[in-house]
Design brief:
The chain has 164 residues and is mainly α. It has a single domain (11-141), classed as Four Helix Bundle (Hemerythrin (Met), subunit A) (Up-down Bundle). The protein contains six helices and two strands; from the N terminus they run H-H-E-E-H-H-H-H. The chain has a two-stranded antiparallel sheet. The longest helix is centred in the middle third of the chain and has 38 residues, at 58-95. The two termini are 40 Å apart. Residues 6-38 have low confidence and may be disordered.
Length: 164
Amino acid sequence: MRSLKPFTSLILVALATLGFAASLRGFSPDPDQGGKPASAPFKWWLDDRYKRELALTADQSRKIEETFQKALPRLKVLNTALNEAESKFDRIVERGDDALVMDQINVLEAARMELAKSRTLMLYDMQKALTRSQWAKFKAMHPPMQRPPAPAAAAPAPATDRPK
């Protein structure tokens, strides 16, 4: 069975872009700016602290920025499609037509998946610009988010009448 470690690593990169999808949706509050909307996603590869701590070269920063710029138009299109699918879903839910709701759920989730897939591919390409050492440092700078504990599986009730 294949390990999920590489995928988990990509998730860490996704976290590093800090609200990339939210910024595509129109702006998200930025706590560093007193809650004012952020005008763009956080580009860690251009940030002085990240460049210094990861020892990023100018060429690496440039490659990552090129990857980002190349992916951005498609991500914007996919994000618009997702927003439209969500809006349509909300309108259909209000009408209460179960068959149409189920059809729109398929459309909505397909749009969400396409956006996530494109974003993950972009992040994977960004990761390839880093050395193993830089990637290890990057992961150390971004510990995985805490997930809520999974609900405990219900234990089977003890059998009272066991056959002999």
